[in-house]
Amino acid sequence: MPAIKTYKRPVDGWWRRNPFYTWYMVREGSSVFVTVYALILLTGLWRLTQGQEAFDAWRASLASPIALVFHVLALWMFIMHTLSWFKVMPKTMPFVRIGGKRVPDQTIINAGKIAAVVCTVLFYVVFLWVTP
Amino acid sequence: MKRSNKPIFWSLFGGGGMLAALFGPILVFITGIAVPLGLGASKDAMSYQNVLALAQNGLGKIALFLVITLFLFHGCHRMYHFVHDFGVHVTPAMKAAFHGFAALGSLAALVLLIRVG
Amino acid sequence: MAETRTITIECLRYNPETDSEPRFQSYDVPFTDDMSVLQGLQYIKDNLDGSLTFRWSCRMAICGSCGKMINGIPQLSCQTFLRDIFPARVKVEPLNNFPIVRDLAIDQSDFLAKLQSVKPYLIPKDPKPVSAGTFKQTPEQMDEYYQYAQCINCQLCYAACPQYGLNDKFIGPAALALLHRYNADSRDGGTAERMEVINSEEGVWGCTLVSYCSEVCPKGVDPARAINQNKINSTKDYFLRFIAPKGGR
Lengths: 132, 117, 249
Known about the structure:
- Chain A has helices spanning about 20-50, 50-60, 65-90, 105-130; strands spanning about 95-100, 100.
- Chain A is mostly helical.
- Chain A has a two-stranded antiparallel ribbon.
- In chain A, helix 1 packs antiparallel against helix 2 (about 50-60), helix 1 crosses helix 3 (about 65-90) and helix 3 runs antiparallel to helix 4.
- The longest helix of chain A is centred in the N-terminal third of the chain and has 31 residues, at about 20-50.
- By secondary structure, chain B is mainly α.
- In chain B, helix 1 packs across helix 3, helix 2 crosses helix 3 and helix 3 runs antiparallel to helix 4.
- Chain B is elongated and about 55 Å long.
- The relative contact order of chain B is 0.13.
- By secondary structure, chain C is an alpha+beta fold.
- Chain C folds into two domains: about 5-105, Roll (Ubiquitin-like (UB roll)), CATH 3.10.20.30; about 110-245, Alpha-helical ferredoxin (Fumarate Reductase Iron-sulfur Protein, Chain B, domain 2).
- Chain C is built from ten helices and seven strands.
- Chain C has a five-stranded mixed β-sheet. In chain C, strands 6-7 form a two-stranded antiparallel ribbon.
- Chains in contact: A-B, A-C, B-C.
- Chains A and B meet through helix 1, helix 2, helix 3 and helix 4 of A and helix 1, helix 2, helix 3 and helix 4 of B.
């Protein structure tokens, strides 16, 4: 069969053309904050091995305006990550059945969110308990 | 069709994603807002002595290693795809760079956790 | 007596013999509340411009022929109503991410090839002659694959998928959902044969869970789910391939 002449439209800027896509990009963008936060912790660990003075300097930098702004943004992005992570989680699992009936996706999503709240509270309580 | 090696990176991405989903917000809140400002936590909670004790504790080492490593692998894997989603032509070198960065960070964490004693 | 109003339908036009690139053409279409976008296009073709080219068939959302981008969203034009868009204008374009053959018709050959590659047919686990009787399935066994069997091959999911748009080597939502439909069928024993497609970069690993495909699917197939469940299967196969049989159920 002879090749037919077709026109392929460019996809540049696809993510700007639909709010659904834009939200997806924000979700994926949370990865930047996760990475930077991990690097902040890694830096803290490094300063720890360098002794008290170096570590205290790192602690002080956490109280700087830039650091605070970053962490507030990061907190928002991490919460967004938590919510979007559990929202898609049912899609990665086979159907769950209890007593022969399929467990609805929303139940799985809610279970995830509850687990996140429980872990948050537990961590905070343990943190307050072990620190002065 | 060639078998993809994605399962390795996806598993690390998934582990990091789950850890971040469950503990990420409270970790960021405590280390980045509560303690530096003394809001909902003591400013001395992350004193040199406290954090050293954590890093020198066996369980503490594991916790620190897991958080740093899994967050890095999660973040880097996703960032690699994020760049691709913008239409950037991603090469095997870029894939190696993103995941290699996470691997280097993990190695650094391991070395530091051994060095801290 | 149905009230008649007028709506503007703006169509992408492209004639490969005369045009170097697409252009838009607007038509004023009188409509009643029961009319679909497809009927609007048919009005144009019958009364205003016989050269307008578009696919359609059943007019009742089962054949999968009439998919179009309607105001930027992939939809079945027979199932989208002019009354819901009025007074805004209706912008109709061919499905995204496919080459345009002419006007609103796209080149489907890539999709058809992808479909073929997943072996979308029952490969019986226990082949038996017709004389041996029918296969039996419990309601739960059917529930495992039923929603994926609802696919009408309308390709809205391909138009929705940015990963397919960025890389047309990706097998894509519908084909992967149909692959899973057969793997999940208790009568089927062909999972091992389909693992090569699943495990490849163009298979499930091309998906980043945008899941817009599942949003636009008119039949509730949920291809995002079909694909992402198989990421776990593919991972198991990757790590256990030396221990367990390939794709063993």
